[in-house]
Amino acid sequence: MKAGVIGAGAWGTALAQTLSADGQDVRLWAFETDVVDAINRDRVNPLYLPGVTLNPSLRASGDMADMADRDMLLIVCPAQHLRGIVSGAPAGVPLILCSKGIEAGTGLLMSEVAEQAQPASPIAVLSGPTFAHEVAKGLPTAITLACADAGLAARIATRIARPAFRPYISDDVVGAEIGGAVKNVLAIACGVADGAGLGLNARAALISRGFAEMTRFGLARGARAETLGGLSGLGDLVLTCSSTNSRNFSLGKGLGEGRAAAELLSNRRTVAEGAFTAPVLRDAARSAGVDMPVVEAVCALLEDAAPLAQVIDALLTRPLRPE
Description:
Layout: E1 3-6, H1 10-19, E2 26-29, H2 33-42, E3 58-61, E4 72-75, H3 82-87, E5 95-97, H4 110-117, E6 123-127, H5 132-136, E7 141-147, H6 150-160, E8 165-170, H7 173-195, H8 200-220, H9 225-228, H10 231-240, H11 247-256, H12 261-266, H13 273-288, H14 293-302, H15 308-316
Parallel strand pairs: 1-2, 1-4, 2-3, 4-5, 5-6, 7-8
Antiparallel strand pairs: 6-7
Helix pairs in contact: 7-8, 7-10, 7-11, 7-13, 7-14, 13-14, 14-15
């Protein structure tokens, strides 16, 4: 299967690097002309993945028509742009969605958006604990590949698997997507705890209680508990809640240090998906009758609805309850 990757940010470039590691032809679509030129001329993406020399069989293009001969397309764009990107992609080609989020305005998961935008294209989801720079360097990584079509999942898994990049197949597309979306919001909360100096006990509490929120919401949306407890749920949650390499954790750390959300978001070239997912997730949870107090707290900070001390106090003084 000839692979195309749509989106040349850090994660898209890392995936393209991995797929071309054995010399196979991989095409990477980039929005920025200077990124296309740098990849093709200098074998680097200094804007999004500096310090990595890219494989000779990886070629970049800014023309979506160059993706027409691909047998599969990995979609690696910001979640709120996925509908427009998928609408312009070649029809009928399997789409592997690597974006993590929930669409604002509709509350749809990325697979649901893609099904509307390209109804003739089979859909799969790739999600799990992955820092782009580690994947690009060939460090060991395990990830979930979720697809309703077991045959297609097996073919994709065979194509993308590498000695240090191991996909685990699932048919729970909803669970894989909810884990990836919710963990971004919870990573902001853990960053807040770090920035505010609340300690490692607080971070561990946020991870575990946040996972409980993820599970409640996921089950309400039809996900399976074992998926949420796997790589695309708990695994990704642990990774992104533990390091400033996570854009969402880094955003939360700034909030915990007392900086305004508007300032932090305006200074970013890359997208912290959790900032866009948080209000959509809050509204979806309320509509489903699912209690998500950590998500509510993150929204309050992002929307400057309450000072940090008040938000923390509201979480710590919630009524005692069974775990």
